[in-house]
Amino acid sequence: xxxxxIIGASGHGKVVAELAxxxxxxxxxxxxxxxxxxxxxxHWSVKGNLEKLLTTASSFDLTVVAIGNNKVRLEKQxxxxxxxxxxxxxxxxxxxxSKYSQVGGGTVVMANAVINSFVNVGEACIxxxxxxIDHDCHLADGVHVSPGCNLAGGVTVGEGTWIGxxxxxxxxxxxxxxxxxxxxxxxxxxxADLQTVVGTPAQVVKKSK
Length: 209
Hints:
With 209 residues, the chain is of the alpha/beta class.
């Protein structure tokens, strides 16, 4: 029996659980720091917290950190990796990934997402529903490309950056690490590290934490 462990019993976690089932995993088990008060999410069981998963991680065929916070997701993946957890790419059957692209372990690619040729996506990323990443883009670890985003060719995105729902990024743009791109923004100029940008064209409104 193939087994998948998911850390994070959340809405995103439920989507990841179904994705694991679509990829043939026969048993999906949740772990969440609200356990033992939280013992189930929908029809899936919550069987422990992060500390418990750290002691049993090597017994699962796949582990996914289903936590929306980019920094926390990446930190927990690194910790679990040291404990022997197995990470690979979890891809929805209706997503498209070029054979010439590379996607790091622990990344999830949701329904109708498109990753075109010669793209490099790091570890512990979320490429969410119906988003598109065009040729020669480079996404560092822990990036979240939200539903309906479009990244044109040659875009670079730094570690832990969040591209908000429905955003558009012009070709050859560089977006730094720890950036927050607001929902529906249009990014037409480079964005430095730790900035929050919103609007069309996107403008800096504050420095991110």
